[in-house]
Amino acid sequence: MAADKQPIDFWFDFLSPFGYLGSIQIEKLAAEHGREVRWRPTLLGVMVMNVMKLPAVPATPLKGPYSGRERNRLFGYFGVKLDPFGDGGLPPLPAIRTFTWLNMTDPALAKQFGQALYRAHWSEATDVTTPEAVAAFAHERFGLARSDVIAAIDDPAVKDALKASVGAALETGVFGVPTFVIDGERFWGNERLPMIERLLATGDLAPA
Q1: Pairwise CA distance, residues 196 & 190, whole Å
Q2: Are residues 22 and 178 in contact, defined by beta-carbon separation less than 8 angstroms?
Q3: Ordered structural domains, the chain, with CATH
Q4: Lowest mean pLDDT segment, chosen from 15-19, 64-68, 98-102, 144-148
Q5: What residues are paired with 12 via a beta bridge?
Q6: H/E segment holding residue 186
């Protein structure tokens, strides 16, 4: 990464299939334009239900059914296999606390874990829904001790680090995922990727 090019902040929650798509696309764009991507965890439940006082999207009248159709369209559009575990729901805390734990000491490994876990749940129908399942996944894919992962998921320091990250997301104005922050510009959703590509290529959002 060039010295004058700041990392792209990618705010995500494993709960969101849209976040999975965003993780793939932003890494591609960043590589093309000499940027790094800094993965930053947050929790949709806190943002949507606790702060904005809104129901979860699947339970929202009119918007809920549409979001399911939009998910299927976007996976097809980006050419990403959609084969989620179970009904697609992913309790986020075991996975995102494991990511947070890894990210505290090794952001590169945390990102690899995040990419693999996203793919495992949403494209490979792999169970990563419980602490035990996440620990088994981390052991099989990355050689991490199951006991260390289980301990990290319940570690107060990890919980505090995740809480701080969620707080930073709210201070930044993040209200959904994926959210990308590039040179102070904030973008929500995969639909904004063309604008992001223009900004990365030209440094400006205005047409040439």
Answers
A1: 10
A2: yes
A3: 8-202 (3.40.30.10)
A4: 64-68
A5: 41
A6: strand 185-188
